[in-house]
Automatic annotation (TrEMBL):
Binding site for ATP: 234
Binding site for L-glutamate: 11-15, 47, 175, 193
Cofactor remark: Binds 1 zinc ion per subunit.
Name the record gives this protein: Glutamyl-Q tRNA(Asp) synthetase
Class in the EC hierarchy, top level: ligase
């Protein structure tokens, strides 16, 4: 089902590999405030395709934590693992058109190429196989877009990335394809997310071109990086935020987002904190950088 296009539809799309931590709260809050400030809709999608990474109960806990922090979604949660047939149909279509192809290169095979796929399997016409990846053909025409915070971004896919994977060798549909197809299905017009995904955006814009669909506007906020050089993440066991501390967590998140909340909001209820934040949301107060250093979590 595709929703009718609206002036503003935003979304937050967590991976249920752990509980929501402070870095994830920043992304959720920024996307929520951007949508509500522009009187738009705000959706939640569960990006659970990489099943080995999923943690039992994490999806439910994330939704509970969002609600405890007043981040109330519009509509039902789209669950990616329930969309796999749609993704595979698109992959099959592109393979049939010669726009994508099967690839049996291993990571060891590609290690010497510095992360740029050299096109090894482009002309091999490998037959379909469950243990082969599928790659999407690209050109070297520049992909250019202007991020609302980070500014102009240019990438030449063929020389900087190469034909990229849209289905992994283990059969899991790749993030780049799933995220675009789901954003189109949900009618998403604006995306607010972490700057770690900024370099992925040109690949997603290439998919939008192939699907002949208008791409959303992007806003990539800086990542919180510890002094050890790691971003706050579930993988590094960054501390989960506590629902009982929701007002304090929201206030701290507004400070991290450079929104300058008044001191009297520190001990106010969630609804009051969010009401102020929605009215005063100014993403341009964030620095146009990819990373912000913070103290290591205790």
């Amino acid at each position: 089902m595709t929703f009718q296009q609206e002036p503003y539809v935003g979304r937050f799309a967590p991976t249920p590999s752990g509980h929501l931590h402070f870095g994830s709260l920043l992304a959720a809050l920024a996307s929520y405030l951007d949508a509500r400030h522009q009187r738009g809709r705000w959706l939640v999608r569960m990006e659970d395709l990489d099943t080995p990474r999923n943690m039992s109960g994490a999806a439910e806990h994330i939704l509970q934590t969002l609600e405890a922090h007043g981040l109330i979604r519009d509509g039902d949660v789209l669950v990616q693992s329930q969309q796999t047939e749609r993704y595979q149909q698109q992959i099959n279509s592109w393979v049939g058109q010669g726009l994508a192809y099967y690839c049996n290169c291993s990571r060891a095979d590609l290690a010497v190429f510095g992360g740029v796929y050299p096109g090894t399997c482009r002309g091999r016409n490998l037959p379909p196989a469950d243990d082969h990846a599928v790659r999407l053909r690209v050109t070297n025409d520049p992909i250019v877009f202007t991020d609302r915070l980070q500014g102009r971004v240019t990438q030449h896919l063929e020389s900087e990335i190469g034909d990229f994977v849209i289905r992994r060798r283990d059969g899991v549909v790749a993030y780049q394809l799933a995220v675009v197809m789901d954003d189109i299905t949900q009618g998403v017009t604006h995306i607010v997310r972490g700057a770690d995904l900024l370099d992925s955006t040109p690949r997603q814009l290439w998919i939008y071109q192939l699907l002949q669909t208008t791409a959303p506007e992007y806003l990539h906020i800086p990542l919180l990086m510890t002094r050890r050089g790691h971003k706050l993440s579930k993988r590094l066991n960054s501390a989960a935020i506590e629902d009982s501390q929701a007002p304090a967590s929201l206030y701290s998140a507004l400070l991290a987002l450079r929104q300058q909340p008044p001191a009297e909001l520190q001990n106010r209820p969630v609804a009051e904190v969010l009401a102020w934040a929605i009215e005063h949301w100014q993403p341009g107060q964030l620095p146009a950088v990819r990373e912000i250093m913070v103290q290591d979590p205790q």
